[in-house]
Amino acid sequence: MKNTIIDVSQLELNDKVVAIKRVTKTVKGGRNMRFTALVVVGDGNGHVGAGLGKAVEIPEAIRKGKEDAMKHIITVALDENSSITHDFIGKYGSASVLLKRAAAGTGIIAGGPARNVCELAGIKNIRTKCLGSNNKQNVVLATIEGLRQLKTPEEVARSRGKSVEEILG
User: Fold this and answer.
1) What would the pLDDT profile of 61-73 be if each residue is shown by its tens digit?
2) HSE-up of residue 137 (Cα within 13 Å, Cβ side)
3) Where is 128: in which H helix or E strand?
4) CA end-to-end distance (rounded Å), the chain
5) Angle at 64 (CA atoms; ends 134, 148), nearest 5 degrees
């Protein structure tokens, strides 16, 4: 399931702009203004990705961010009640995001950047907490890194040479 190439053309992707920043570069004649857009894409069915686009105009930056996100789509392991299979802490830079599985009916309890990732991944029940840095870009990437490293009970059983019943207890 992991490290497989996903055919993006067959997925119906939705996108959300998480953050738009104006960045400047001081040059001899003054300041050059540009825009950076952090975009998350997902199909709501276990596939999600994030990308960063930079351009002179906002719509162009968003388009580039969406293209970049499509190149970095991952598959998320979900359980029977649309939650994650086990608790995990995703880390990226100085940002850490605690991902906790939740019972059916809990909903998505998450801050803005992590919420966008969870919604577009198709997770319906989860609790998250940002630890360390709350920089939007790093929180999004930490959440995706945590979701990428989740394993299904089948994968764990196969790697340990046991049955799924022995793993789940």
Assistant:
1) 999 999 999 999 9
2) 11
3) strand 126-132
4) 23
5) 50
